Amino acid sequence: MTSSVVHLSRLARWGVTLARRRALVGIENDPNAPAALRSLVRLARLATLTGKSGTRDYAGAFRAIGPAAIKLGQSLATRPDLVGEEAANNLLSLQDSLPPVPFAQIRAAIESSFGQPLEKLFSEIDPVPVGAASIAQVHRGVTTDGRKVAIKVLRPGIREKFARDIQTYEWAAAHVEAMGGEASRLRPRLTIANFKRWTNSELDLRREAASASELAEQMAGVPGYRIPAVDWDRTNGRVMTVEWIDGIKISRVDELRARGHDLGAISERLVISFLTQAISAGFFHADMHQGNLFVEDDGTIVAIDFGIMGRIDRRARQWLAEILYGLTTGNYQRVAEIHFEAQYVPSYHSVGEFATALRAVGEPMRGKPVKELSVGQMLDGLFAITRDFDMQTQPHLLLLQKTMVMVEGIATQLNPDINMWDTAAPYVREWIRDELGPEAALADRLKQDTETLLRLPGLIRRVEEMFPPKGGAPEPPPLPEIPLITDKREGRGVLGYVAASLIGAGAVWGAVALGWIG
Length: 518
Fold this sequence. Notes:
Helices cover about 55% and strands about 10% of the residues. By secondary structure, the protein is an alpha+beta fold. It is globular and about 110 Å long.
């Protein structure tokens, strides 16, 4: 178990790194942050003799702290409307511009993980990586049977580094949550627990390959979106090999336009493909930043990097679809009811008041392109609602929220005039009709009732085990209830027990003296 001194040392070092680059000024200025946390942040800034005004180097701070912090920065890089153009552009360097690991180490990692020479697996590997990210780097290669592939290899020692950092994140989250108030409502401990689970999955490339295979099956019938094929013979926990993709990164808008692509169509296709994954399949690519999406010559979007995936159960997907549809149609009353049904809002609040609060946020967004909206004001309004109605953070939906932010950011970059609500509404409406209509409700009821009937024999057997049939021995007679001296009855104390003992002893002595007891 890592000591508190070690955790404090790490946090102090990270705090100084962030403070020097003014990456903590936002927390210091946030009135909803715990006072103790704001004081610590201010102390870190003052200790580094850093003023509030000046350039905020987020990418440099996250990169200096380590790979776990880099993963957070990657999610913020897709929202220039939220963090600002300067910060977004600065954070883009975290996605594919990190210093690569020397190829000699990569060769050694591949050979040790497969237990055979590199030449038996690949006839050719480019020693210069095509991308070097926080967890792994990718090399272009050719298999011994002549197929072009992308070879993803974990950075040596990255698993151990993540484990150390996450231990400190857990320690810090526990202490922040103990501060109460807004920090407790946001449930940082559970958030870090989910982050730990996601990253452990991302650090096992076999699981990433399995996720790619599963998502490919789910999206097989969706035109214009596909997943590269996995080479299972050249994949293990530290190395993953997939088909090489010849395409343009979706972030290169000018190049896409020069090739004659319809950016509006690509934007809509991206939104619909995400909704298909999240709502229809309940299994979605949760790391859809610009570096992980390519566009082929025919306009097909190809996704890569499946280390972070999200799952949503059917009931949560139904709530999600109804919430989205309610916002697109202005049915705020139904959206409010769903929040109460899902127990996202405590029952002591008013459904009507919550619907009115949603209307105040939703109405300014309806029917307008994103470029005409103040996203900052919209988010401020939503955060105010969560605070006013005591809504706790839902960690199981954090990946979904993060991915929705990414998709919206990319879609807006491709087509600033896209109306997210109008794009999503037809798909959501059709899904609701198919999945929540009368036929679907009847089918669900038949399925549930059949499953219940099939469980009845097992239930009866368990009941019999708890209440077995009577055996051959006769039932014991009823026994009188005898008060024990350990019972604390009303009106009986220590003196009562002493008196009862003396009377009992005297009665026994008298019976012996009279010869009643031999």
